[in-house]
Amino acid sequence: VTQECHVQNAAREYAKLYAAEAEMLDGFGEVPEIIPIFLIHRPANNIPYATVEEELVGEFVKYSVRDGKEVNFLRRDSEAGQKCCTFQHWVYEKTSGNLLVTDLQGVGMKLTDVGIATLAKGYKGFKGNCSFSFIEQFRALHQCNEYCEMLGLKSLRAAHQKPRKATASKSKTLPSSSAAKKMVPKKAREHRDLISSEH
């Protein structure tokens, strides 16, 4: 319960920064908001701790892909869905690919019950509640939209493909270098991929 509050309120702070940047742009319009969640202590109750948040009334929609195995097409067709995907891209770029807000869902522009994925070691002392693989899957699946362009976010598809092409050409001309690459530990490769995805 405590972690749920910690994650949602941390994501809310990123959403506030995103809103401040987006609202300055002409034509961006309304920005998604992650509602606050509060932890309350009830000493007389059998379950002493509970969470309280605003009740969202209306059609509840899941806008973002959580783990790459599910795609909600409503997110592509709606303004809120597109802006949620742009929010994910914005957070990914701001944290240099180290953090991603996942499970963006709610009613209209009001979101709740979100998750955060970070590197295994966390990001700036914060550890998410979702697997790091969600970040990799987002990087592979995200399709930029007009709001990504308005914020000047770099295409993840282009950044993800460039290193692959370079590696393929090197391995053809220099067989010894490809053999050396096989000896690089997995963690080092992942770190290098992260660095290359920033450019």
Any overview of this molecule?
The chain is α+β, with helices and mostly antiparallel strands and 199 residues long. It has 8 helices and 8 strands. The strands form 3 sheets. A 4-stranded mixed beta sheet has the order 1-7-6-4. Helix 6 (156-173) crosses helix 7 (175-182) and helix 6 packs across helix 8 (186-198). The chain starts with a helix and ends with a helix. Its main location: membrane.
Main attributes?
199 residues, alpha+beta, Protein kinase-like fold, four-stranded mixed beta sheet, two-stranded antiparallel ribbon, 8 helices, 47% helix, disordered C terminus, membrane, Alpha-protein kinase 2, cell membrane, serine/threonine-protein kinase, kinase
Proportion of residues in helical segments:
40-55%
Structural class: alpha+beta
How many helical elements? 8
**Top CATH class:** Alpha Beta
The biggest sheet amounts to: 4 strands, mixed
Specify the overall morphology: globular
Number of DSSP E strands: 8
Keywords: Cell membrane, Disulfide bond, Immunoglobulin domain, Kinase, Membrane, Repeat, Serine/threonine-protein kinase, Transferase
Subcellular location: Basolateral cell membrane
EC number: 2.7.11.1
Protein name: Alpha-protein kinase 2
What's the short version?
By secondary structure, the chain is α+β, with helices and mostly antiparallel strands. It has helices at 2-22, 74-77, 79-94, 133-141, 146-150, 156-173, 175-182, 186-198; strands spanning 33-34, 37-41, 49-53, 61-62, 99-102, 105-107, 110-112, 115-118. Its EC number is 2.7.11.1.
